[in-house]
Design brief:
The protein has 488 residues and is α/β, with parallel strands linked by helices. The longest helix has 28 residues. The chain contains 14 helices and 16 strands. The structure holds pyridoxal-5'-phosphate (PLP). Pyridoxal-5'-phosphate (PLP) binds next to helix 7.
């Protein structure tokens, strides 16, 4: 017989799989009689029940059919052509225009460079890892959060288990509207807010609702890759406008991109340079948007952390013409795996964005929204923020001290006034020698990352982006001391 039974896998399943494989491969033609259950059981040395079970499954799935009084047969209606399972072909190799199985959108995705530096593997982190985007597990009030989530799980009301509203839970939207008004000068009503799965989804929804292939989008240079990729995937043409010490140089938008649909900006703390957009530039950007009918997408991803200088309120709060779409995230202030963020929309955009959100994933998970509404509403969030701000301020001070002490005038520091990262330019290292220096630092246990990938026009100097949210002050000092030893 064709079948050798092995130990460890249910016997009925083995018999079923063996027949299934033979039938699909065309080795048992349609209408062929299967052995009688009794004979096969005897031959295999198993109980008749084992074979009966396998045959039942073949019958139920349509591989076989029973004929009254004469046994079990391979289904007569099956096609003759064998279907031998082959390994799936790699989608990236299916490229030839006209023959690609991918949509235009899919083909554009296939053209994008791989996402990097990628998901953070906590196990593989270097001891002194300045990777941007990693939170501090110690800063987060895990006990309070777990208490809220557990209580809500135990309550287990039906309301928390059925589909929720696509725009998000009302208590969270109310809590967010109040918080954003208080802390960021964002003028909004709760019904202008849509809760999203992190600001990446805010970017994706914005591009779905506002952009067609070929549309122009003004972006900062350098810029956040999460945004640049979304616009590239939409087939939009990115118009990169340089950033200087006052932020995006609005005067340089004209006249090339007067017909842009959107300008994506990070005015509170430009990513990655960290510069703050001046008030004059903010007003000029608003004036440009009003005049051209473009929207401004304001990404306020980390403005909660500000160490020096007066915080400048959001551009959204200065907007009198409904041109600003404001987005925020809990990735920096809580933790990124939470996947919670929000959009504040001009009223005419609420309905199309809500429809797009429903189509993408119906809504953001209810339990986390409810927990967060309670966390914000009961004051835990702002208490956590005050504490985290102090913790980050100490880390930042340690980093600035260590950079001054160990690298002195061999580095120029940029964008340290806010957020949880800064940029350093290394005067001793040629741009082309940076990879070697990064490898040497890694050999010393220090993880540092180049800033060049964020630029469209590559910088001539060697620059690093240093994230410091997850490190202790002492690790920061040791890391920079070791880094200095390889900066030559
Ligand atoms: C400029 C910018 N926007 C947004 C985010 C956060 O994205 P998300 O909310 O999808 O985690 C980051 C985080 O790296 C960022 O640097």
């Amino acid at each position: 017989m064709f079948l050798k039974l092995v130990v460890g896998e249910p016997l009925g399943q083995q018999v079923y799989h063996a027949f299934r494989r033979k039938i699909l491969a065309g080795e048992m033609a349609p209408a062929t009689r299967l052995p009688s259950t009794r004979a096969l059981a005897l031959e295999l040395g198993v109980s008749r029940n084992v074979v009966l079970l396998a045959y039942e499954q073949l019958l139920a799935e349509g591989y076989a059919e029973g004929r009254a009084g004469s046994g079990t047969y391979v289904a007569a209606a099956l096609p003759e052509t064998p279907r031998i399972p082959r390994p799936q072909r790699d989608a990236r190799r299916v490229r030839a225009p006209g023959s690609s199985p991918l949509s235009r959108y899919g083909r554009r995705l296939a053209e994008l460079p791989p996402v990097g530096p990628g998901a953070v593997s906590v196990e593989n982190r270097l001891p002194y890892d300045f990777r941007y985007g990693v939170p501090s597990a110690d800063d987060f009030p895990g006990g309070v959060w777990r208490g809220i989530v557990a209580r809500r799980m135990r309550a287990g009301s039906l309301g928390a288990m059925v589909y929720g509203p696509p725009e998000g839970q009302a208590p969270l939207r109310q809590a967010l509207a109040a918080y954003l008004k208080r802390s960021r000068g964002v003028a909004s009503e709760p019904d202008q807010i849509i809760v999203v799965n992190g600001s990446q989804q805010a970017l994706d929804l914005t591009s779905r609702v506002l952009l067609d292939a070929g549309d122009r989008v003004v972006i900062e240079d350098p810029q956040y890759q999460g945004a640049r990729r979304v616009f590239a995937a939409a087939g939009a043409t990115a118009v990169a406008v340089p950033v200087d010490a006052d932020g995006l140089d609005v005067a340089r938008i004209r006249p090339r991109a007067t017909v842009a649909r959107l300008a994506y900006v990070t005015p509170s703390h430009q990513f990655p340079t960290g510069v703050v957009m001046s008030l004059a530039r903010r007003l000029a950007l608003l004036e440009w948007a009003e005049r051209t009918g473009a929207y401004i997408l304001e990404d306020d991803y980390d403005s909660e952390y500000r160490y020096e200088g007066r915080p400048i309120e959001a551009v959204q709060g200065l907007d009198t013409a409904g041109r600003v779409i404001y987005m925020g995230t809990f990735s920096k202030v809580l933790f990124p795996a939470l996947r919670l963020g929000y959009l504040v929309l001009p009223p005419p955009l609420v309905a199309p964005f809500t429809a797009a959100k429903w189509l993408t994933d119906r809504h953001t998970a209810t339990l986390e929204q409810e927990a967060l509404a309670e966390f914000v509403g009961d004051g835990h969030f702002e208490r956590h923020l005050r504490r985290a701000r102090m913790r980050h301020a100490s880390r930042r001070a340690a980093l600035l001290d260590a950079l001054t002490e160990h690298l002195g005038d061999r580095v120029e520091i940029m964008g340290a006034n806010a957020g949880v990262h800064l940029v350093v330019w290394l005067s001793d290292v040629p741009a082309r020698g940076l990879d070697r220096m990064i490898a040497a630092a890694a050999a010393e246990g220090v993880g540092v990352y180049p800033v060049a990938p964020y630029y469209i026009e590559p910088p001539r100097r060697a620059g690093l982006i240093l994230g410091y949210a997850s490190l202790t002050e002492s690790d920061i000092r040791t890391g920079i001391r070791r880094l200095a030893a390889v900066v030559t």
